[in-house]
């Protein structure tokens, strides 16, 4: 009898956790189905996002009309900087606002042993990915021909591809903030300084020489910087500009990029300075010379690191319960 009573007390005192009964693939299948249904049923939020992307592209298209004049150099850099900043802001803000609410449900269900962290995370990321890709394609498909960026199918596809990857990495930053923050209010409070730092050190607003040493690592982990650099290289390489008599002239897009400390290789398609690349987050990745490829890989590194941090944060945040003790005998 004493052993049975002790077992009952231990069962009451133990946390309400048990190993998930279904296998990891079955958990993923069920969770993905639920997450995908949630995405497809949210018609009004989806419509708002589409209108947001279309209206933003139309605003840019109504303001920017690019040609081969000298003034269009600054216009191109300004436009691509705004595209990178806007995509980051929308993706991070949208994720930070929604994920903490989902996290509360996840913690409750995961504490009961219904499913594991990895199946939940994969199902969420893969269910949201088509929406992010579609929104990026809508925005880029309207913006690119409307403003007069380079008329090249390959450059257009690279623009869409990098814009989509940039949206993914920015959403990953928002996921990481939402997972690490203890509440939605805390996540929203963390978001502005993170975005502001990425905007300041985007490679366009301040030169590397003027950057204080203590924060010189920030440009290397800024999704805004890598998105802007990749889009700029894609657009400016191969361009030639008209020169006015007796006025300063930048004849090529490569020369314009050098003013931003982006030095292209001999092929003019993104080969860069090995030493400069080695200072960034890609110092252990092969082929650091290719600047467009370097931007793509940097976005991928940011994506992977933020996903890993999100998984780590979700795995460490388990619901805790106070241990119950048997009532003392009177």
Short summary of the structure?
It contains eleven helices and no strands.
Write structural notes for this entry:
The protein is mostly helical and 330 residues long. It has one domain. It contains eleven helices and no strands.
Counted beta strands: 0
Choose one word for the global shape.
elongated
Count of individual domains:
1
Uncertain runs are 5-17, 266-279, 319-323
Membrane topology: Multi-pass membrane protein
Main location: membrane
Protein name: ABC-2 type transporter transmembrane domain-containing protein
Subcellular location: Membrane
Name its key features:
mainly alpha, 11 helices, 66% helix, 330 residues, single chain
Please give the structural blueprint.
Layout: H1 2-13, H2 24-41, H3 43-63, H4 71-111, H5 117-147, H6 153-180, H7 184-200, H8 223-236, H9 253-258, H10 274-278, H11 291-316
Helix pairs in contact: 2-5, 3-5, 4-6, 4-7, 4-8, 5-6, 6-7, 6-8, 6-11, 8-11
């Amino acid at each position: 009898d004493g052993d049975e009573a002790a077992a009952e007390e231990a069962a009451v005192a133990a946390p309400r956790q048990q190993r998930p009964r279904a296998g990891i693939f079955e958990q993923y299948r069920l969770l993905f189905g639920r997450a995908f249904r949630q995405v497809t049923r949210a018609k009004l939020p989806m419509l708002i996002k589409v209108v947001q992307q279309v209206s933003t592209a139309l605003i840019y298209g109504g303001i920017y009309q690019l040609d081969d004049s000298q003034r269009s150099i600054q216009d191109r850099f300004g436009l691509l900087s705004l595209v990178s900043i806007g995509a980051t802001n929308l993706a991070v803000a949208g994720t930070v606002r929604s994920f903490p609410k989902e996290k509360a449900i996840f913690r409750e269900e995961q504490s009961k042993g219904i499913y594991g962290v990895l199946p939940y995370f994969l199902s969420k990321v893969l269910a949201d990915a088509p929406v992010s890709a579609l929104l990026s394609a809508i925005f880029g498909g309207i913006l690119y021909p409307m403003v007069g960026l380079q008329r090249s199918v390959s450059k257009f596809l690279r623009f869409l591809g990098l814009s989509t990857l940039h949206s993914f990495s920015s959403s990953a930053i928002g996921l990481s903030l939402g997972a690490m923050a203890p509440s939605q209010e805390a996540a929203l409070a963390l978001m502005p300084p993170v975005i502001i730092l990425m905007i300041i050190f985007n490679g366009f607003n301040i030169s590397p020489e003027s950057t204080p040493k203590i924060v010189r690592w920030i440009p290397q982990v800024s999704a805004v910087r890598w998105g802007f650099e990749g889009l700029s290289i894609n657009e400016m390489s191969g361009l030639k500009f008209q020169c006015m008599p007796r006025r300063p002239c930048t004849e090529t897009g490569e020369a314009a990029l050098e003013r931003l400390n982006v030095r292209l290789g001999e092929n003019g398609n993104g080969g860069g300075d090995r030493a400069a690349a080695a200072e960034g987050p890609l110092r252990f990745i092969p082929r650091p010379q290719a600047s467009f490829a370097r931007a793509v890989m940097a976005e991928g590194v940011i994506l992977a690191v933020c996903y890993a941090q999100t998984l780590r944060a979700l795995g460490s945040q388990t619901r805790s319960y106070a241990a119950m003790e048997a009532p003392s005998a009177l």
